[in-house]
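Researcher: If only I could read backbone structure tokens as easily as an amino acid sequence. Walk me, if you will, through where the backbone shape changes along the chain. I have put the entry right below:
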Amino acid sequence: MTYAWKAAGLTYNRYLAVAARVVRRSLKEEPRLAAERRGQMDLRFAKWTNGKMGEPQNVADANAKAYAEKASS
């Protein structure tokens, strides 16, 4: 037996993200806003050079910057 999310070509993590978004959108205004804030992620990374940590950067901002640089070249 195959799962519906697998048959649709989704990974399990993507399936969970879609299900969570549907549940958040079905809530009333106040609980929905609180749930949407909890659903936001802030992932950061830092490059290490010669044993020293560089400036921490937000992954979403770094990706946007990389796409803009790639598009301009």
